[in-house]
Amino acid sequence: MISADDLIELVRTYNPKTNADKLADAFEFGEQMHEGQFRHSGEPYFTHPVAVAAILTEQRLDDASIITALLHDTIEDTKASYEEVSERFGEEVAKLVDGVTKLTNLQLSSRETKQAENFRKLFMAMSKDLRVILVKLADRLHNMRTIKAMRPEKQAQKARETMDIYAPLAGRMGMQWMREELEDLAFRVLNPEGRQSIIRRFVTLQRETGDVIHRITGDMRLELEKAEIDAEVFGRAKKPYSIWRKMQAKDQGFSRLSDIYGFRVITKSEEDAYRALGAIHQRWRAVPGRFKDYISQPKSNGYRSIHTTVSGRDGKRVEVQIRTRQMHDVAETGVAAHWSYKDGVRSGNPFAVDPAKWISSLTEQFDAEDDHDEFLEAVKLEMYSDQVFCFTPKGDVTKLPKGATPIDFAYAIHTRIGHACVGAKIDGIRVPLWTRLRNGQSVEVITAEGQTPQVSWLEIATTGKARTAIRRALREADRERFVKLGHELARSAFEHVGRKATDKALETAARALRVGTVHDLLSRLGAAELTAHDVVQSVYPEIISGEGEEISPRRAVIGLQPGQSFERAACCQPLPGERIIGITHRGRGVEVHAADCDALSAFEAQPARWVDVNWHAGTHPAAYATTVELTIGNDAGVLGRICTLIGEKKANISDLEFLDRKPDFYRLVVNVELRDVEQLHSLMLTLEAESDVAAVSRFRAKPERPDWKG
Asked: Which end of the chain is more exposed for a tag (fewer CB within 10 A), N or C?
């Protein structure tokens, strides 16, 4: 562990005006509070906060951040209180320490709604002061560097959390070096054999080809000197996880992977950066489609650089990044550059983004998401995506996540344009709305008066902003229909318990359920966002049982026209609880498909046949046939035990068929009658846990040729 004097010297290298006494006091206080505590490795616990503080000095952060790092576990793990920290080190530090403590207590790797709610809290903490997440990232980095002392199962849990949440977040904040190290440390835990194989192949490659980095670096320096460009050149091999990811994405072996080396050219000015690009392209052949200019089109986190890939010696591809020193500082520290110090003052980097504006741009669409799952979906889409830059016909640039479509482009321009979109042209050519946009394309949105968003757009749109606007428009369009349906459901539900759905009763229910007006209550009831059981129970809790009324299969789907019937599609066998889409068929009513059913693609060109439907949110009977495919051991009594397990899960077997019989295994399909998708998941988890079950999956038939006539 470094001493207090050593830590102060690290800070003084970039901030000579640091408050050394305050840092020393924080060091002493933290050491005193953690006295007698030890890490899993047996080291004194205080070695960890000191290491976290040292990591933050590498980013040249301010005194408050360094002190927070030294104290970040005191409120949570010691007798120190918020008031004591505030009195001794100031309110700013106390708030930061409290923020880190709250982040530490979030279980970000938990499931579904809880995870979504914790993501909300994470973004709320970031919005108050981004330094909270900078300290937390440094905390996670040191924990990952020392993870070997933990139990194997704890290592795996922390590594997955790091790979899923903290590494992408570091990348989104522009701290690419931290993202790469976090990913590689997690990779070492999650797939040690894969990582070792990459390293062994690197050693073999270096033995066969020599020091490629040294040779190419020398060649680049020579070309830049010829062009009279003053620049620094650095080369490195990419991290094992980065190479592994490329191998998986391109489905290629190591020997066929070319761009495993990266080079950086740091110039004195922006003009020299473009001159360096010209010199490199004159000397080596540029690889088509691998050029990005983030200087003229910076990323939202302030990142600026020119990226190009060229064919180097022996035809090997190398990636080159060209930028100025100030751009490089932002590329290394990302959003953290806002707090960086140099010679005792804020560095004043013109390329550092305002953290408040950055976090606002990242979270503005999340605030509109009321649904937990939709919020989590929007967060992950934004956190895990790269960007593409497209142009309007007037030449204005629009930034979108990778994989975006013309629908996303339309909504990025204006919600009104998105609502009225009927088609799009890319580089002057008419394309389907589900086309994926690429960098540099010119996109023209075709609109029509009277057009309204379609349900199918939710499957096409990828950005949180577009999906939120579409959902809101669909809800508004259906609002009156939902109000009428909700009124009918409420009337029936109240009559069922011998009461009347009077205005006063509905007003009482709206207040109790906190949904605003009676109009809002009936709309949400008709849209299946509330159940009639919940509404009645909010007014008459004493006469409503906890079980609720079972929903008849005939009225299980909401959103149909009066007198319109429905049937479940045989190809996907949708269950209550799953997102569904209706397709109208002449003379047959509506066929209900799961939202991810492959058969829906056949109807993309027929939007008039799509119906926005939902399952009724009440309790359903076990009346929905679902097919499960099993591979089980060929031993005495196995099939009997499987049938018993299915029965114990309150599922009725309606049919059973053997697909394949082998000496050691049987493969069969079982038709079971279920209530909803939760019962299906519970059943499959139970079957997976059975030692004699080798595989279990939901069986879905290939869709038959669609009815094109409608």
From this structure: C
Which range among 158-162, 488-492, 548-552, 616-620 shows the weakest confidence by mean pLDDT?
548-552
- Give the max Cα distance, the chain: 93
- pTM of the full structure: 0.54
Strand partners, 668: 630, 658
Give the strand pairing for 261-267 and 317-324: parallel
Catalytic position from the list 77, 371, 478, 629 = 77
How many Cα atoms occupy the beta-carbon half-sphere of 274 within 13 Å?
6
CA distance 441 to 425: 10
Among the listed residues 9, 25, 76, 219, the single catalytic one is 76
284 and 311 in contact (C-beta within 8 Å)?
yes
Average pLDDT, the chain: 81
Output the DSSP codes for 340-396.
-EETTEE---TTPPPHHHHHHHHHTTGGG--SHHHHHHHHHHHHH--EEEEE-TTS-
Verify whether residue 370 is a known catalytic residue. Answer: no
DSSP state of 229: -
Q: State yes or no: is 77 an active-site residue.
A: yes
| Nearest one of 321, 318, 297, 295 to 307, comparing CA atoms | 321
Question: How confident is the model over 178-235, as pLDDT tens digits?
Answer: 888 999 999 999 888 888 888 887 777 777 666 778 888 899 999 999 999 999 999 8
Q: Among 432, 353, 445, 335, which Cα is nearest to 390's? A: 445
3-state helix, strand, coil in the chain (%, to 5): 50, 15, 30
Q: Classify residue 163 by its DSSP letter.
A: I
| Residue found by looking up tokens 């020599």 in the block | 210
How far, in Å, CA of 530 to CA of 527, rounded?
8
Contacts of 661 (CB under 8 A, 6+ apart): 634, 667
The larger pLDDT score, comparing residue 116 to residue 536, is at 536
Contacting residues for 242 by C-beta, under 8 A, at least 6 apart: 180, 183, 184
Give the percent of the chain with pLDDT over 90.
Answer: 24
